[in-house]
Write a structure and sequence with these properties.
The structure holds two protein chains of two kinds. Helices cover 28% and strands 19% of the residues of chain A. In chain A, helix 14 runs parallel beside helix 16 and helix 20 packs parallel to helix 22. Chain A is elongated and about 135 Å long. In chain B, strands 1-2 form a two-stranded antiparallel sheet. A two-stranded antiparallel sheet of chain B has the order 3-4. By secondary structure, chain B is mainly α. In chain B, helix 3 packs across helix 4, helix 3 packs antiparallel against helix 17 and helix 16 packs antiparallel against helix 17. The chains are: A alpha+beta, B mainly alpha. Chains A and B meet through strand 23, strand 26, strand 30, helix 14 and helix 15 of A and helix 1, helix 2, helix 3, helix 6 and helix 13 of B.
Chain lengths: 847, 407
Amino acid sequence: MKRKHPHSRIEPIFAGVRALRVAAALALSAALAACTAGGAPTAVNQATSNTTTANAYTGPAAQTADIQAFQINLWQNIRVANRCGGCHHEGGQSPTFARSDDVNLAYQAALPLVDISNPSQSTLVLRVGSGHNCWVADPNACAQTMLTWINNWLGGGSAAATKITLTPPPVQSVGGSKLFPADSTQFQKLIWQPILTQFCSNCHRPDSATAQAPYFASSDPDQAYLAAQAKINLSVPAQSRFVERLQSESHHCWATTTGGPPDCPGSAAIMQAAITAYANTIPTTQVDPSLVVSKALSLEQGTIAAGGSRFEANIVAKYMFETGTGNTAYDTSGVSPAADLTLYGPVTWAGGWGINVPMGGKAQASTSASQKIAQMIQATGEYSIEVWAAPADVTQTEAYILSYSGSDKTRDMTLAQHMQQYEGMTRSTVTDSNGSPPLLTAAANMNAQAALQHIVLTYDPINGQKLYVNGVFTGDVDASKGAALSNWDSTFALVLGSEVTGKEQWTGLIKFAAIHSRALTPAQIQQNFAAGVGQSYYLLFDVSSLSGIAQTYILMQASQYDTYSYLFNKPTFFSLDPKAAPSNLVIKGMRIGMNGSVPTVGQSYATLSATVGPPGYSAANGQLLSGVGAVVGVDAGMASDMFFISFDQFGSHQHVFVEPTYTLQPPVPSTTPQPDLGVATYERLYHTMSSITGVPFTNPTIAALYNTEQQSMPAGPLLNAFVSSEQTALSQLAQAYCAQLVGTQSYRDAFFKTTALDSPISSNAMASAFFGTTSSPNSANITLAVTPLVSATVGTANPQTATAMTTELSHLLPLIPTLPGEASTTVSRAVQAACTAALGSGAITLQ
Amino acid sequence: MVTNSTRIQNGKTRAARVSRAARGACALAVLAQLAAPALAGPNEQAQRIYERIAGVPPTPAVLAQMAQAISSGSGQSGLQAAAAIATNAPSFYNITLKNLVIPWTNRDGTVFAPLNDYAATVIGMVRDNVPFNTALSADILYTVNASGLPAPSVSNNDHYAAAETNGVDLSSALKATTQSVVYGIPAAATAGLLTTRGAASAFFINGTNRAMFRFTMINHLCSDMPTFMDTTRPTDRIRQDVARSPGGDSRTFLNNCVACHSGMDPMAQAFAYYNFDATVGTQGALVYTPGKVQPKYLINAQNFAQGFVTPDDSWSNRWRAGPNSVLGWDTSLPGSGTGAKSLGQEIESTDAFAQCQVTKVFQAVCFRAATSAADIATVASIKTSFKAGGYKLKQVFQQAAAACPGT
């Protein structure tokens, strides 16, 4: 077999199997499309060293450039004794692709073992991936390393993956499952009454003062039943949202012992036991026979979507986090020594490849294995850090995603998150040993999101650091510019998720990390971003029996999105038979089913309505039904979840999807008595006092005080929210009005309806002389002041109150001079005081 | 010079001490009032109704007029006749209504904000008995017809702020006009209160315009998003900026985010052509770009690239099914459309909208939430009357005040 450029390669089409030109024709993913734009040029790959030393090669020189690329990138790595060379050497086990005597013969033996169009499906990759003589504990890591070597040989930037070969999946009918019965009796008995109404009803019922949907603790059990179904997993009770919420999120746990503290594990156990008991009452039933469904298949029964090729010509270390178990994340760069990461603390593996880094977690390589990073980067004076990560939040500060450093204050390079900014720090001849000053993205751009992002930090001697997020340069310029990296320290360690000391914690999900010894170009970054992350599959849901056309499918790209969900994308009506000619085929209301039932959450295609046929349909592309993705929760797990598709209508087949009926729950009356009175709010007081005194509210003194004090007065009428500071503020306003009233003759005369107060006020007469004493009050003068005040503030509506206030104020005026230090109080001041007492009293403030 | 007010603020002054003593004395009077037998006669009821509606005490003449109305009427009819006198008071518009509406016009829900066109329009609609079920869709605006005011402008609030500062009586000075005439917005793009400058400056500024939807729910359906949560709606219209796996945990999306966004995003799409551009002038202006989706609808597209990309301002109400179907959607409407006007009509035509308006008014004049069985029944009755009687909000004030006159 001659190796040719992938673009010129034509695959035969076998019966029942169609080669699908993904990027060029169907454009199943932007990732693939980006790779086919002419194909990136083949890069010259760097030589790497091997862990097990091989004898120096003394055989014939490579006859062609391709053989030389094979020699450098693959052969030198596999011919060592602890890898393929241990058996597949000259005179050894056939095929002798790892022979050390003649690289040209090894090349000939290796060619049949490599799938140039889809390197991930190469025999070499599949064999080590299945555990055949893998040189590390994880066969996946060997497979990825082998794939990297092959890709390097074929050309780091080549568009090797231009074809996906779709094969018909096994024909499997939709299996049975447990379905929620119509009758809620058992739910009420086992879950609702003993748990939900006891512990969740403060919020999750519609008539709560702090009502929070869903109302699964409603006093109406049928309403509660409808709301609870989305929170219960009948097949795996432990994965019920009800359980998870208590177990891992400590959401309103309750005490499981009398007087004890809230007990989340105990609460979760009780909830799980209740759900398990409930699930046990429900027999497994076959899928609803009235549903219009496709055939079923699991994720791994799909065709692996090889994805777009990545640019990795200058890779130093690479982590794809595929292993899924243990505490080692393998470096699959193929560059020895492998800087494998050890997972520390509570770091856990994420579904769909990745690691979750919570507080206290980190993944760190040894200093000796990390040494290659400094050595290879110092040799070029450039680097790139590339990460696919989802920050847990955008409030964490100085949080180190990936760092190559020695302590909290010494580093060679660091990629960090600072709230919604990303940050780069690089030691160079123009920065300090801590990489300061750092490059920080502009806060206003909010580059960091709590979503999966492709983040690249590059460094080159001209520009210094540059940051790219999701393939786009952030535009932030490194003020330090570039310089030499000659002062790097090669004794540091590579660490993900925090500083090597465990400080500068970053939390979130890391799905991919790589270090390159060159500054990736914008095009290369775009290429790697477009290549995506994680493993995805093409699923062919057989709908032949529905369409009446053989080999017709709903084709979807699917992947495990994270530990808790699957992502389905771009459903396409497709046929493996190029002669198929669907026409006027109506498809409506498509829902993704799982394990015999149809999840209620995440159905993006439920509103789909399409008619398949010309001109939308073509034999090459099929017909795209929807351009959006659907995220659907994991049920039993990736290994066992079986998917199918149900339809409201598929051609002549129909199933009417019936929404549950909801009825408005009448509010439950409260028997808690409420105050009949309220407090006059700030502006009411402002105008009321003006109305009573006759002093305009626009009076400059009054208005100035009001403007500064209004927010200190009651903003709402609730009596039980009234506080003393509000009384103080409104009293100030009352006193200001009274000062203007008493001090301004025109207002005074109009209000008191007499001029008899003018003389004592203007002459600063003593209050004791004018109003008398408590033992000998001057009732006539007291009446002059008190009667108008009572009349204006209380009025005639409530004579009893008017009498009470008259008595109090009449007592007050002669009392004032007897107060400490008030012997010389004037008439003016005393009247102001009485006025303030009346105006600031409950007669005004209560409405 | 020491002014009265500064002396007042100094708690160590003699006058302040005197005041404290005086207040203590009058507290007794208040207690006496509170302790008085709760047997309110026409006078007390009239005073209560007037103060609750107008915010200030009545003049003796008005009090007598209202008491007479109560005495000569029977039961609620007399009380409502009295309340109708109270709603003629200028302060009903200048204080009570304004203070009720102003919190609807800002994100903080604060009453301490200047008068704006949103509040003025509500006040005008109440005064003129404009059917309130057009509040979210009509081409309507009220300006202040008074001397010395800056002209109303789409790019500032000076007209309304000055009217308030000058103490202009809104009950007489408000003048009905339209947004299309004053602001130059196409009539088809107006959506009542939603497209006022006041609403735009608070809810179309920055962000993704979802705020306009959320605050419309809060202010006109009386519930925030948590009460509308429904995870079972289709997810096809949730925009790209909503991460499906926030922090790497899609449970957050599937159990929380989806519950609001699946219903909200398809409806908030109606605002796709609106923005509040804070850079226009010194205070910013509403911007409407027909046929061109605002960039804010397309931000953070890589948070979930497979999400919905907004192509236009068409909207769809997914809440007509599921738990939120109980909001009482008008079955004579299609439940979908284009632009803010038809979405506003969809919302203002719900039973929940009418219920919300009545509930707010009841609480504003009765100073308590309608939680007792009697109050719940009262609100239901007023709502029925409100809907059947042409959505006159002034009438709701009268009926509510008459329902809690004191006993």
